[in-house]
Amino acid sequence: MAAGESKGAREEDRVMSTQRMYDRWSETYDDVENPTRDLEKQACELVLSKVSFENIIEIGGGTGKNTSWLASRGKHVTSVDLSAEMQAVAKAKVTAGNVEFVQGDIRGPWNFLSEKADLITCSLVLEHVESLGHVFDEAYIHLTPSGHFYVCELHPFKQYTGSKARFETDEGLQVLDCYLHHVTDYTDAATAGGFSIARIDEWFDGDDRTQTPRLISFLFEREELP
After folding, report:
1. Domain count, the chain
2. Which of 155, 58, 151 is nearest to 99 (CA)?
């Protein structure tokens, strides 16, 4: 096997591992305490509360944490996730009629999408994606002019301490494969991909700003490339 093929095979194994882990996590995801999940929901609603949008692509919809709220604000939501089992939970609890669920892998071409949107949200996903540039390129393609791209991820400062997506099972603690992305990795990928930075926010447990922030969120706006 050539070196490039070996790297590709290893990356494919990582994706399959992430998918299997989230399939497993779906059994308890909504039932156990999860401050990262709960704080991201708050961040999403606060950041997007003053943004107008109609058609939404939700990347990393998971078990539907943000889906119903987005559906209440827009005309149509396409909720995308890598894990069919996470989506099964979402389908069982999201009752809005303007939501379409699609399973897809954002590492490759976003050919699982048929329509453009004026808002794309991406929540707690990019720590599992090596190439941020590819994600921003695809987001640009699938956004309408002046559309917004909301991203919220575990704060790099949190990652520096070793924090990763993890969950407990009867067999013990399960820790997912993650990539470390610095703040400038996000902003550089965004500006290179044709986005301006509308706002950046840091999110703290209990709003205690003396502690390490748990999350960072970005709101990017699509610009017209020359």
Report:
1. 1
2. 58
What distances in angstroms separate CA 47 from CA 13, 18, 93, 147, one per listed residue? 35, 28, 24, 15
For residue 69, give every residue at least 6 positions away whose Cβ sits within 8 Å of its Cβ, in sequence order, or none.
Answer: 41, 44, 45
Q: Residue 19 CB: number of other CB atoms within 10 A?
A: 19
Provide the domain limits for residue 105.
3-222
- DSSP annotation of 214: S
Among all chains, which residue has been given the structure tokens 């399939």?
Answer: 23
**What is residue 208's three-state secondary structure?**
coil
Quote the tokens at residue 15: 């994706």
User: In terms of pTM, does the model score above 0.85?
Assistant: yes
pLDDT in tens, 171-192: 777 777 789 999 999 999 999 9
Q: Which two tokens stand for residue 152?
A: 């919220």
For residue 117, give the H/E element and its range. Answer: strand 117-123
Q: What is the CATH number of the domain that holds 38?
A: 3.40.50.150
